Amino acid sequence: MSHFVDNFWGEKNQGFAVLYNNMKNGTTSTKELEDFIRERSGIEETYSKNITKLSKLALNSSTSGTFAPFWQVIKGAMDKVATTHIKLIQKLHELVKEVHKYGEEQQKKHKIVGLPIINFNFYNKTL
After folding, report:
1. What would the pLDDT profile of 63-92 be if each residue is shown by its tens digit?
2. Buried b or exposed e, range 7-23, using 16+ CB within 10 angstroms
3. What span, in angstroms and rounded, lies between the C-alpha atoms of 86 and 44?
4. CA dihedral in degrees (100, 101, 102, 107; nearest 10)?
5. How far is it, in rounded angstroms, from Cα 52 to Cα 47?
6. Which residues lie below 8 Å from residue 44, measured CB to CB, with a gap of 6+?
7. 3 has a pLDDT exceeding 90
8. 51: exposed, middle or buried (C-beta count within 10 Å: 0-12, 13-18, 19+)?
9. Burial level of 88, CB count in 10 A (0-12/13-18/19+)?
10. Over the chain, what HEC string results?
11. Alpha-carbon separation of residue 15 from 6, 18, 25, 55, 119 (angstroms)
């Protein structure tokens, strides 16, 4: 079982240094997450456009004959898939904005907290 005390203080009881490094790495992690979600959104957008094109091809296919009902079902299903992916893209864009806002807040807090922690580490080294 993991305990807080085992994860907070780090080696040689350098708790503030551990927190500072976690905070510093948090900014990088937030940017990586934002980039990942943005890339995923782009992939979904491309997929949605391709499904929409394919749906139009299904609509242009034979409207009479044995497969006519099949083409109507396929077109309807593809339209629903494209619509669902468009909604996903919108949610991903919202998520990117939220993660970006979180990253900006994180940077502001990092600037506020960074100076005293750096001074504390300097003070610890001189002891």
Report:
1. 777 888 888 888 889 999 999 999 999 999
2. eeeeeeeeebbeebeee
3. 8
4. 90
5. 9
6. 85, 88, 89, 92
7. no
8. buried
9. middle
10. CCCHHHHHCCHHHCHHHHHHHHHHHHHHHHHHHHHHHHHHHHHHHHHHHHHHHHHHHHHHCCCCCCCHHHHHHHHHHHHHHHHHHHHHHHHHHHHHHHHHHHHHHHHHHHHHHHHHHHHHHHHHHHC
11. 10, 5, 15, 58, 14
Tokens coding 22: 């976690």
Which tens digit of pLDDT belongs to each residue from 18-30?
A: 777 777 788 889 9
